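Example 3.2
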Amino acid sequence: MTSYGLFSQPNRRDVLKNLACGFGYTALAGLCAQQAAAGSTSPLAPRAPHFPARAKRVIFMFMVGGPSHVDTFDYKPRLTKDDGKPAPRQDVGGDRVWLKSPFAFQQHGESGQWISELFPHLAKRADDLCLLNGMYTDLPSHAQGTVLWHTGSSQFVRPSVGAWVLYGLGTENDELPGFITLNPTGSFGGAQNYGSAFLPASFQGTRIGGGNVSISQAKVAHIANSKLSPGEQRRQLDLLQTINRRWLDEDSVNPELEGVIESFELAFRMQSAVPKLMDISDETQATLDEYGIGASSKPTDNFGRQCLLARRFAEAGVRFIEVSYPDWDQHTDLRSKHTANCLATDQPIAALIADLDRRGMLDETLIVWGGEFGRTPGTTNKRSLQDGRDHNSQGFTMWMAGGGVKGGVRYGATDEHGFEAVENKVHIHDLHATTLHLLGLDHEKLTYRYSGRDFRLTDVHGRVLNDIIS
């Protein structure tokens, strides 16, 4: 370090070096301001809900591309009767014919829920499912639909639903992120689907996996320090904490600085906690078999691992977990590709519900399943393309289970062909409002002031679906 005596002058390099430190302090001040706006020294500390909650956590199951509701959970006998007949409605598209489902439907459980043969395992849990058959959304476009599904807005960059949940409730585990997304889609919004936008960065989701990489090979990016050993990292953090607490005692620094240091602490603890949770070697063979986990070539292996990890993360106190499965966009090859998709996901989803139930966790874990929209009940009148369906935002199905939701319930309905929601219609804003409500959060009161305005997940929309709450 250069010593500045009475007559010594700092050189240009020393001046630039000191100025650079100033930039670092400026950035730190910005981080502190963000944590102060969050209203807590430790932004991830558990917070009380607005009212008693029915659920403690959420597992979002996003089926990328838009599953066909009339081939899965929305039985339409009239579609079978009118198969091949002209579909006269202009909003179905020009030169269209009705296309019956190639899959048989049957009633299941004491509730008599109509479920397609594509889901034989999930059908055994029919009395746990609340089918939302009257869903609708804004646009039949993958990008806008996906971002709306995740953030409540298709036009602007907004915090994801997981970030809002974490902002409202904090987390119950100080060794893990409060929001984890497993194998998220890299397209249709990408990181925006689990981002925090203008909320403090500590509320964004932690991505594990993605793309075509098997979840068994996935790791949290940048979790390990290649330059410092764990012991050296611990000593470095201890030094920072010692200096920080001394300054806090002297009231010479903003106390929100502690929250910034805590983020480093969390990253340090994650180095051992996350790999341990992702190691499923301590699970019994019976559990692995139930989830369909085995050889990597087994259709259920990859998604089964995601569902098992979702249970393990939920059990460890993670507040919001998302799992994804790609390629439900069947404009052609509907029969073969929907069959393959359901073969890969049906058993793991049913196993997750059963596993949570056995552990006494289903009542406090809200599961939400669905895609960004549904499919058209009509198809083009060209024989070569009659094994497929196009995008449909005006009517489709999602379902919820556990977490204070009535099981064995069918809420809402589409018209007789399955094109448009006509009874007890549910928009994505309503789904978000209900999700927050079950977590004990009032969607109209969960706000964050940004750029002179109080923002919320549901914007100026949304209603709680009280009829489906147990």
